[in-house]
Amino acid sequence: MNWLDIGALSDIPQRGARLVKTMHGCVAVFRTGDDEVFAIDDRCPHKGGPLSEGIVHGHAVTCPLHNMVISLESGLAQGADQGAVATYPARVEDGRILLDAKRLIRGAAA
Amino acid sequence: MKQKLVIIGAGMASGRVIEHLLAGDPDGWDITLFNAEPRGNYNRIMLSPVLSGEKTYQDIVIHDDAFYTGHNITCRFGEPVVRIDRKNKVVYSNAGGAPYDKLLIATGSAPFIIPVAGKDLPGVVTYRDLDDTNAMMAAAEKPGGRAVVIGGGLLGLEAAAGLKARGMEVTVIHLMGHLMERQLDPAAGYLLQKDLEARGIAVHCKGATKAILGKDHVEAVLLEDGTVYPADMVCMAVGIRPETRLATDAALDVARGVNVTDQMVTSDPDILAVGECVEHDSQLFGLVAPLYDQARVVAATLLGQDAAFAPVQTATKLKVTGVDLFSAGDFADGAGREDIVYRDPARGVYKRLVIEKDRLVGAVMYGDTADGPWFFGLIKDGADIAPMRDTLIFGPAYQGGAQADPLAAVAALPPDAEICGCNGICKGAITAAIDAGASTLADIRATTKASASCGTCTGLVEQVLASTLGDAFQMPAAQPICGCTDLTHEDVRRLIKARGLKSMPAVMQELGWKTPCGCHVCRPALNFYLLADWPQDYTDDPQSRFVNERNHANIQKDGTYSVVPRMWGGMTNPRELRAIADAAEKYAIPAVKVTGGQRIDLLGVQKEHLPHIWADLNAAGLVSGHAYSKGLRTVKTCVGTDFCRFGTQDSTGLGIKLEKRLWGSWTPHKVKLAVSGCPRNCAESTCKDVGIICVDSGFEIGVGGAAGMDLKETERLAKVETEAEAIDLTVAFVQLYREHAKYLDRPYKWLAKVGLDWVQAQIVDNPANRAALIKRFDLSQSIYQRDPWADRATPQAQADFAPLADLTKEAAE
Ligand SMILES: Cc1cc2nc3c(=O)[nH]c(=O)nc-3n(C[C@H](O)[C@H](O)[C@H](O)COP(=O)(O)OP(=O)(O)OC[C@H]3O[C@@H](n4cnc5c(N)ncnc54)[C@H](O)[C@@H]3O)c2cc1C
Ligand code: SF4
Ligand code: FES
């Protein structure tokens, strides 16, 4: 892995998200209430809603367009819904957010 | 000729007699109703939720003034009867007499006062009626107050929980070895004590009160063992005795209670008695279920029909939110009795069944009481349980190999299983009502009275509806907010106010949220309730808002946003229009549209451009139109007297004043206003949340209109003469809606629930309340009336709206 510093943990509000633009579209980087970070594609499997704008609860986010709930850990739709988004390795070190640059640059397909 | 019926005591028992009597013979009786309390019949058993703040007195009234006047009942409330003259058949209060053909004594019971020194000190209260409840609520106002409750039975514990909920420090002193010893065995009593202690209520069992100490007011309680508990208030809840003084003075047969026959007649054939004041077959009564049976018999006897009272077993529940206990039958140890016990310490569950000769004779359950009614049915029927003995403790869902799904337990109940203990309604009566067309909880309450008293069986009744009607039944209004809680919106709003919960963690902790930080359904609602109720203490949480309110713009289906500047009362000018045109060009806005709210919508803006376009529009004097918010949207106006030949008032001017006053306020759902200059109604006032129509003599204010999925015309709130009054009423209405409505209920939906009459009583007929509402609204506005665009014109905000990092320049390997 090739960890890339993309910003400070404090740049994202608790239970919020910010975007990282890549060649393959936007990746949403979430900070949960317990200060963990998760990176997933910013495209809802339903109709492409911007997941980064959803309400974050536990380790899940609710899509702002039609309320599909997506697990930040697995990228899978929860409950009765079907669908999945790509997830990317992410971690916090000394208050900085690190993402796996290789995966990000290669995109979800890899 | 009508017969004269005089009733002494307007309590729960006599109230039920009146209902049966009116149903049986609406015109046969001329009824005079005396009551010592200065009010009519209310649901006494619901005083505990009033004390804890979960309900108000209004919620628990059973018979209101309209009921009494509608049935021509002469009410003499606040007039205790002091004497019965049996010879001349007249009863007397201090205000005068009333002759009777038939007399009904329904005086209930009086709290028992232990004869210790200090029992008469101010600050010592009992727990029987609304005045007692109000006295306790007043005592709890004092911050950090300490209460001692003497008596750890049903009443004492409900009082303790209520006082605790109101913020008092509470100690319960109980004479016996464990709480509620008449209903619980020691194991269940222990779990109950543990639960109460976990809520911060101190419990002292085996404590005998020696004296109540204090000079001019209670200061402490002294126990026989020397313990002293400081106290600002003492609630004595050690038991009740039947109120028989009048009957004794009138030389009727009285033992512990007024003796009655199976027909509920006393030793005088023209005098009947009902309720807690009676003794039947050496038995006294302290729960409403048997009293309601008595009431049926009293009415039948008065109507000359045959009926006989036969007491049935009763079951007990404690009405303390979050404490689940159930007890029925006899559970003393004894020769020939066997127990089946089930415990789940981790969940705090305890169940015990007592069996004698293959019959179930007693059941005590704590922590999980769902199967209570089924066991109670087995006890009442004396059913042979031998065939299912091995799995009996697991409840009905396990009998006959049925799967344990939530509805199965209810579906498996036999028709004669009791569902509503208060009213003695069995499942069969409810399914019969459903067969006859009832399809909602309200229908069932109206036709069978099930769930209409203490309400603890509401869930069961709904499950009967669900299991009988299948998919045709939608779980109605009493739905929890979401999966994170079992409480409804209404419960949560009440508890936030009553318990002074001022932050999201406080709500979630105190009300037992099941998830760590809620979900997308409850968090926006809680955020609104908290900011509406505690504007000065609570800080708005953007992360608990939907995207539109967090980003102050409406998200579109492609992830872009729309931007709508405010145009006060729909007025604009060339400078504003030029700024809008410039912005549309500068940011290459794909679509510009005139909205139905008389303003201009710029559609298709990229998120990162938002703070920039706002800054540009701000510079021209434009502010956010809040077109995205659950808050004030627009005030649509017509040109009124300024230009129109029909105009009667300055409708545009009034619209602008209203918009300037109300903008920026958050509300349960969006709020749209309109002001039309005359009844031609060009601003479409009659379908707005608040719509004003100007006439020559003043302003007609309508509320609760809708023109969305539902179409509804406004209802007339009031007509006023001056513009100032029109503004006052509008502001007060919006604040009342902010304080009471469920999140995401538009005003018309809320109005349908509370009724226009109630709203009028609050703000039109009650100037003091109106002024207080306006004051609270203005206080909130002093904090929340801020232009979000101006707030976000900073470089920091601009950075927050942009991506955190841009990796599009990094080359792929
Ligand atoms: C806080 C509380 C919680 C309770 N919880 C439950 C529960 O969960 N379940 C349950 O089944 N039961 C419960 N009960 C008991 C239930 O409320 C009573 O059994 C029931 O109200 C008795 O009805 P009643 O008509 O006999 O008497 P009441 O309802 O007490 O009515 C008697 C009325 O007569 C009036 N009166 C007395 N003397 C005179 C006079 N001389 N002249 C004129 N009027 C007079 C009194 O002022 C009173 O209004 C509870 C009681 C209390 C106080
Ligand atoms: S509502 Fe009356 S005053 Fe207003 S524009 Fe229409 S006709 Fe004129
Ligand atoms: S686009 Fe996410 S739920 Fe529809």
Description of the structure:
By secondary structure, chain A is mainly beta. Helix content of chain A is 5%, strand content 41%. The longest helix of chain A has 6 residues, at 101-106. Chain B has 813 residues and is of the alpha/beta class. Chain B is built from 28 helices and 39 strands. Chain B starts with a strand and ends in a 7-residue tail after the last strand. The mean pLDDT of chain B is 89. The A-B interface holds A 6-7, 11-16, 18-23, 26, 29, 33-34, 47-50, 53-58, 62, 64-65, 67, 69, 101-102, 104-106 and B 515-520, 523-524, 542-547, 550-551, 555, 557, 559, 803-808, 810-813. Flavin-adenine dinucleotide is lined by residues 8-14, 34-37, 44-45, 47-48, 80-81, 106-108, 127-128, 155, 158, 243, 246, 275-276, 286-289, 291, 319, 422, 454 of chain B.
Q: Which fold name is given in CATH as the topology of chain A? A: Rieske Iron-sulfur Protein
Mean pLDDT of chain B: 89
What is the global morphology of chain A? globular
Work out the helix count of chain A: 1
User: Total strand count of chain A, please?
Assistant: 10
For this structure, what is the CATH homologous superfamily of the largest domain in chain B? Answer: FAD/NAD(P)-binding domain
Largest sheet of chain B: 5 strands, parallel
Please identify which CATH superfamily of chain A we are dealing with.
Answer: Rieske [2Fe-2S] iron-sulphur domain
> What is the name of the CATH architecture of chain A?
3-layer Sandwich
Q: Estimate nothing, just give the exact number of structural domains of chain A.
A: 1
Radius of gyration of chain A over all CA atoms, rounded: 13 Å
Write the H/E string of chain A, N to C: EEEEEEEEEEH
* Straight-line distance between termini of chain A: 13 Å
- Beta-strand portion of chain B reads 15-25%
> How many helical stretches of chain B?
28
* CATH C-level class of chain A: Mainly Beta
| DSSP strand tally of chain B | 39
**On the 0-100 scale, what is the average pLDDT of chain A?**
89
